[in-house]
């Protein structure tokens, strides 16, 4: 600098006195610019005297002159940049004016640059939005920096950091300015770095170097360059069958690295089968929701393909495996494979009556089934095979106990709660002929009054059979049996259907008092079963026989007379009328009455015993020949009677009797006229017979009309016997075999006219204690049958008949 100053002094001294100085800018106030006095070669006094002053024109006064010291001083801070901008060199031109003499000196002060300005940017930050899809090589213009300094102190270079994605490119332009650009050399990825900060630095070349910076913010814009991605490649879920619609099974989720709408994921079921999307759906949140019905029995699992799609159409897929869990929602199904509606009651134990198939579609315990039947019946159920049951009889059956069973089979599974179902089978037990008919009573006894109408129903036997229908149809059969050598069928018959026992013939008590036989009841089964019962028929007596006088014997030819001595006392037993009645009981209870007598005052007849006794002393006036008519009457209802004539001779000697009786014995005459009398008798008998028949028929018809119901009653007639006359049955004391009814009507009790066999030469045994009824008489039959009997007697008995006509007729 000093050399410069010297150089200027030389030039001034020679020409105009011109001095140049060079000072850096920004010197402090008062700094010395140069020794003007010395350089101009002027004395300081001259400066004073010359009133030296500086003239600057209109420019600011940066420099002042110190007259005392003769130097130039910095008056104001000098900034080269504001003074000269980019002009160079930059100088201040001053004039020093002196008076006395007037002198003018030119002074040039050059201002040199110092590095006092930093490179600067207009904005201290810059923002860019760049798509991540921007291709490499894309250029982005940056702001230039400005440095007011010049020369080396001016702007020198730029730098950009970091350089990961962008590089700086500086291009010199024609005007000398530089174009600053940043170039993408590595693609951007929003998903990695969404915001990038860079720093652009501009440096100058000064010493020390100065720099300015600008911040660059790059926002990477999203591009749909990422597909959604499912979190799991397979999702698993389980759901109970029969779950409610709307149940959420699981949630799937897919992520998309993109932003905004590019990152919005929607889910869908992509399975080809439409049916699946009717069952499951997936909502925007990825919730898998049940919308249809699922049934474990139809499908145990599902596989659903799902898809996640973003709005740009990029997608990912995954699958969901859904296991359906079983719920006990099926009750067992019972099916009868085969069954019998009817079985025989004699079917043996363990007869199979039905085969059942049981099916429960549920699984595990929900499908395990147990079956049983109602326990009040004789059947059991057996598990034959898995799922197959057989219903068998447990014991032998009896239709007579129960003819029908309702078998309820109940099957329940093991689920919780258990489900069950049941079916009722109706089984009919068909009949087997295993019951024999049983009579209502162990034996029967019935009564019938003798002289019944043949065909009269006596009573009814009845047997019951517990079986059914044909097996219970009982028919009654009379068992072959003979009574006194006569087959029972000629006595009675049995109606096969009704069991009514009919009399085949009219019974005669005097011939047979009772008999018994067996009736068999047989059912209609095959083979038939039967049982039998004893029936006893008791024949009841009817007063159908008049008393028969045994003594005195009534003969046509001879006269028998009882002798009464004239000296006989009162009560003398003249004779005894002996009569029998073949009936029994009351019907055979005889009483004796004196009907007619020659002298009523002389004799009486014992009412009970038939003894004829005198009731007063016999005197001489009494006729020798006495004739008494004694009526023997039984006690039947109506009673029957017989008359007997007793001749009594009141005499002391037999010749007396003879003389008296010859006049009324007409033996010879009787014999002569026998034929005549017989013819007459026959005529009378015929007449009487016809009369009897006519009358009886009339009466019968009348009575029958009146009391039809009574006589048709089957009730046995129980006769009444007075105590004393009990038991004439079965003693056999009076057997009278040959009685022939002349008049036979529907009710033989009313039959009054009979031919009877004459009681004759019988042996009379008088029992002293007898009351007149206990008479033991050897029957005439026994006489007849007796081979030793005299022929005459037998002839007599065989051919003698007497006619008794009841007076009540
Ligand atoms: C600018 O600086 C870079 C490095 O920062 C360098 O490579 C380059 O050569 C410099 N340019 C000049 C003209 O100095
Ligand atoms: C069986 O069921 C039928 C019809 O329900 C009924 O009429 C009958 O009485 C029942 N039989 C038995 C033995 O319970
Ligand atoms: C009658 O029944 C009895 C058993 O009550 C039996 O012993 C007898 O043999 C049967 N008689 C006939 C002829 O069937």
From TrEMBL:
Location in the cell reads:
Cell membrane
| Biological processes, Gene Ontology terms | anatomical structure morphogenesis; homophilic cell adhesion via plasma membrane adhesion molecules
| Keywords attached to this entry | Calcium, Cell adhesion, Cell membrane, Glycoprotein, Membrane, Repeat, Signal, Transmembrane, Transmembrane helix
Q: What does this protein do?
A: Potential calcium-dependent cell-adhesion protein. May be involved in the establishment and maintenance of specific neuronal connections in the brain.
Segments crossing the lipid bilayer: 674-699
* GO MF entry, a single one: calcium ion binding
Q: Which cellular component terms (GO) are annotated to the entry?
A: plasma membrane
Q: What Gene3D superfamilies does the record point to?
A: Cadherins (2.60.40.60)
Q: Do you know which Pfam families this protein is assigned to?
A: Cadherin, Cadherin_2, Cadherin_C_2
Q: Which InterPro entries match?
A: Cadherin-like_dom (IPR002126), Cadherin-like_sf (IPR015919), Cadherin_C (IPR032455), Cadherin_CS (IPR020894), Cadherin_N (IPR013164), Protocadherin/Cadherin-CA (IPR050174)
Q: How does it sit in the membrane?
A: Single-pass type I membrane protein
Signal sequence, renumbered to the chain: 1-17
Principal localisation: membrane
Q: Which domain of life is it from?
A: Eukaryota
* Protein name listed in UniProt: Cadherin domain-containing protein
- The UniProt record lists the Cadherin domain at 17-121, 122-230, 231-334, 335-439, 440-549, 564-661
Q: Which organism is it from?
A: Labrus bergylta
């Amino acid at each position: 600098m000093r050399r410069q100053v010297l150089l200027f002094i030389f030039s001034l001294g020679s020409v105009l006195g011109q001095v140049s100085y060079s000072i850096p800018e920004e010197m402090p106030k008062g700094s010395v610019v140069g020794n003007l006095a010395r350089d101009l070669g002027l004395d300081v006094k001259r400066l004073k005297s010359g009133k030296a002053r500086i003239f600057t024109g209109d420019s600011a006064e940066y420099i002042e002159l110190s007259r005392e010291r003769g130097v130039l001083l910095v008056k104001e801070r000098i900034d080269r940049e504001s003074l000269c901008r980019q002009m160079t060199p930059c100088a201040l031109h001053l004039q020093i004016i002196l008076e006395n003499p007037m002198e003018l000196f030119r002074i040039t002060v050059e201002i040199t640059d110092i590095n006092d300005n930093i490179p600067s940017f207009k904005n201290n930050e810059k923002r860019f939005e760049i798509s991540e899809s921007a291709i490499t090589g894309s250029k982005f213009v940056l702001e230039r920096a400005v440095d007011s300094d010049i020369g080396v102190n001016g702007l020198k270079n730029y730098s950009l950091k970091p350089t990961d994605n962008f590089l700086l490119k500086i291009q010199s332009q024609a005007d000398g300015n530089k174009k600053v650009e940043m170039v993408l050399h590595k693609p951007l990825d929003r998903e990695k770095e969404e915001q990038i900060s860079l720093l652009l630095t501009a440096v100058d070349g000064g010493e020390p170097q100065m720099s300015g910076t600008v911040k660059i913010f790059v926002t990477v814009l999203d591009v749909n360059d990422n597909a959604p991605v499912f979190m799991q490649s397979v999702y698993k879920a389980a759901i109970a069958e029969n779950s409610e619609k709307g149940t959420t099974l699981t949630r799937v989720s897919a992520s998309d690295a993109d932003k905004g709408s590019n990152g919005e994921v929607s889910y869908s079921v992509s399975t080809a089968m439409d049916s699946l999307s009717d069952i499951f759906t997936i909502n925007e949140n990825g919730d898998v929701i049940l919308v249809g019905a699922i049934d474990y029995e139809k499908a145990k699992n599902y596989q659903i393909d799902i898809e996640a799609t973003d709005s740009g159409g990029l997608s990912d897929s995954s699958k969901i495996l859904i296991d359906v869990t079983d719920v006990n929602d099926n009750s067992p199904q019972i099916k009868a494979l085969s069954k019998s509606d009817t079985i025989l009651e004699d079917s043996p134990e363990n007869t199979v009556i039905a085969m059942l198939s049981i099916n429960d579609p549920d699984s595990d315990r929900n499908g395990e089934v147990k079956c049983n039947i109602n326990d009040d019946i004789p059947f059991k159920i057996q598990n034959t095979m898995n799922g197959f049951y057989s219903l068998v009889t447990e014991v032998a059956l009896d239709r007579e106990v129960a003819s029908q069973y309702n078998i309820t089979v109940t099957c329940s599974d093991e689920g919780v709660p258990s489900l069950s179902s049941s079916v009722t089978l109706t089984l009919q037990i068909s009949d087997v002929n295993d019951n024999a008919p049983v009579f209502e009573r162990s034996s029967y006894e019935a009564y019938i009054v003798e002289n019944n109408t043949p065909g009269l129903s006596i009573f009814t036997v009845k047997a019951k059979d517990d079986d059914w229908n044909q097996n219970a149809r009982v028919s009654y059969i009379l068992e072959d049996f003979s009574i006194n050598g006569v087959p029972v069928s000629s006595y009675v018959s049995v109606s096969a259907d009704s069991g009514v026992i009919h009399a085949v013939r009219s019974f005669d008590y005097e011939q047979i008092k009772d008999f018994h036989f067996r009736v068999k009841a047989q059912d209609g089964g095959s083979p038939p079963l039967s049982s039998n019962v004893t029936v006893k028929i008791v024949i009841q007596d009817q007063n159908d026989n008049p008393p028969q006088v045994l003594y005195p014997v009534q003969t046509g030819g001879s006269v028998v007379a009882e002798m009464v001595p004239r000296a006989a006392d009162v009560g003398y037993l003249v004779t005894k009328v002996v009569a029998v009645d073949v009936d029994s009981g009351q019907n055979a209870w005889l009483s004796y009455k004196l009907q007619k007598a020659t002298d009523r005052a002389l004799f009486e007849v014992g009412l009970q015993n038939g003894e004829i006794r005198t009731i007063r002393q016999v005197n001489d006036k009494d006729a020798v020949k006495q004739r008494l008519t004694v009526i023997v009457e039984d006690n039947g209802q109506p009673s029957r009677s017989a008359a007997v004539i007793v001749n009594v001779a009141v005499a002391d000697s037999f010749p007396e009797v003879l003389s008296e009786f010859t006049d009324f014995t007409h033996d010879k005459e009787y014999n002569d006229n026998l034929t005549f009398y017989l013819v007459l008798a026959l005529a009378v008998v015929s007449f009487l017979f016809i009369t009897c028949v006519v009358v009886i028929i009339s009466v019968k018809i009348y009575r029958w009309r009146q009391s039809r119901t009574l006589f048709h009653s089957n009730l046995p007639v129980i006769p009444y016997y007075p105590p004393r006359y009990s038991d004439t049955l079965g003693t056999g004391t009076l057997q009278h075999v040959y009685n022939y009814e002349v008049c036979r009507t529907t009710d033989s009790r009313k039959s009054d006219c009979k031919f009877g066999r004459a009681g004759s030469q019988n042996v009379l045994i008088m029992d002293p204690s007898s009351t007149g009824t206990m008479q033991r008489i050897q029957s005439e039959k026994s006489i007849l049958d007796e081979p030793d009997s005299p022929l005459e007697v037998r002839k007599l008995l065989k051919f003698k008949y007497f006619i008794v006509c009841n007076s009540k007729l």
